């Protein structure tokens, strides 16, 4: 039996878009049929580099012309909903896109109402789970070597809309994706509201999970530094504490720190590892083919899972705005969470 070849179209050809497009091109299960970007020079460069004949400045037009099975887009967060609508309207089978999944809970709810009604699968770019050092920490936790897990955590000095999604995703993974039940948070600073990934300068959140584990997520300038790592965006520390030790990953990059370390019932351990898109993107993209082949092979980075993490992030914003505990799951809000928090932060002076 010959494996089905799935057609893929990619929109937005910045660094992340090209990571996706290149991984698709290198996987024999896919045919890259079209690329799109508002920058004509990027389109032409991508066509030449990837050997693709079709290029466009309009994603909806590309989807209509190429009729792909899979639509991948790597736009700024503010464009998620229109891209989801374009993919659903084009009848694609699966949409893969960057985190954060949206800019407000209302937007996320609308996006998933569309994809669920159309039966469209979704995958979100939490591909760092495929890093060997991330996987090693998961292996140690699952082995029971740190005892009963009571705390999971993720910290990054990168700001919220860049990094919180990754932190809660991997911390939740280390807690076997137990259901998050409530969030309490605090935030300050508005300088990063001017960034395209609009965020408070700092936010720290406590997450209560159904299995009794506590989660602690911090992102922004006042989050704990990771001095072992000397590249700003890779100063991420994610791990778990148990009754007999801890295990954690330092994202890092080749030659700039990173790896994993643990204290377990077997003693002190550590090992190498670094963020590597070429390494991580390959299994991430292969997982898309696996899920399209077999309904039971649900992608580890599936959108429904990412939606729960996004709910934690939006609950953190609501908690920092109101000063109280926020129960999950979230419903719609009268005002976008980032806007509501900005109003409160501005009132504090």
Using the alpha-carbon principal axes, give the shape: globular
Do you know the CATH architecture of the largest domain?
2-Layer Sandwich
Highest-level CATH class of the largest domain = Alpha Beta
Structural class: alpha/beta
Helix content: 25-40%
Q: Strands across the major sheet, in which order? A: 14-13-12-11-7-10-9-8-15
What's the CATH superfamily of the largest domain, by name?
Answer: Dihydrodipicolinate Reductase, domain 2
Question: What is the residue-mean pLDDT, rounded to a whole number?
Answer: 97
Distance between the termini: 66 Å
- Biggest sheet record: 9 strands, mixed
Count of discrete structural domains: 2
**Poorly predicted runs of 5 or more residues:** none
| Count of helical stretches | 10
How many extended strands? Answer: 15
Reported by name, the CATH topology of the largest domain is: Dihydrodipicolinate Reductase, domain 2
> What gyration radius follows from the Cα positions, in whole Å?
20 Å
Fraction of residues in β-strands:
15-25%
Instruction: Write down the secondary-structure element order.
Output: EHEHEHEHEHEHEHEEEEEEEHHEH
């Amino acid at each position: 039996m010959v494996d089905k070849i799935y057609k893929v179209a990619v929109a937005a050809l910045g660094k992340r878009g090209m990571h996706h497009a290149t991984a698709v091109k290198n996987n024999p299960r896919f045919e890259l049929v079209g690329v799109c970007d508002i920058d004509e020079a990027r389109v032409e460069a991508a066509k030449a580099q990837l050997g693709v004949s079709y290029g466009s400045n309009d994603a909806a037009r590309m989807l209509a012309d190429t009729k792909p099975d899979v639509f991948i887009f790597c736009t700024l967060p503010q464009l998620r909903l229109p891209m989801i609508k374009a993919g659903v309207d084009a009848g694609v089978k699966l949409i893969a896109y960057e985190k954060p999944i949206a800019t407000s809970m209302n937007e996320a709810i609308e996006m998933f109402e569309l994809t669920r009604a159309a039966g469209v699968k979704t995958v979100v770019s939490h591909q760092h789970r495929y890093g060997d050092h991330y996987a090693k920490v998961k292996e140690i936790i699952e082995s029971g070597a740190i005892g009963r897990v009571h705390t999971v955590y993720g910290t990054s000095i990168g700001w919220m809309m860049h990094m919180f999604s990754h932190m809660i995703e991997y911390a939740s993974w280390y807690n076997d994706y137990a259901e998050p039940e409530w969030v309490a948070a605090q935030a300050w600073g508005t300088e990063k509201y001017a960034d395209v990934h609009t965020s408070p300068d700092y936010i720290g959140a406590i997450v209560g999970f159904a299995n009794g584990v506590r989660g602690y997520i911090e992102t922004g300038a006042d989050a704990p530094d990771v001095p072992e790592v000397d590249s700003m965006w890779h100063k991420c520390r994610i791990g778990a504490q148990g009754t007999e030790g801890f295990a954690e990953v330092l994202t890092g990059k080749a030659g700039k720190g990173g790896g994993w370390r643990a204290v377990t019932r077997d003693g002190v351990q550590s090992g190498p590892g670094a963020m590597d898109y070429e390494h991580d993107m390959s299994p991430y993209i292969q997982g898309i083919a696996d899920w399209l082949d077999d309904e039971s092979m649900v992608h580890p980075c599936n959108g429904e899972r990412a939606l729960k993490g996004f709910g934690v992030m939006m609950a953190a914003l609501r908690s920092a705005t109101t000063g109280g505990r926020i129960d999950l799951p979230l419903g719609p809000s009268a005002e976008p969470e980032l806007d509501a928090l900005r109003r409160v932060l501005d009132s504090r002076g």
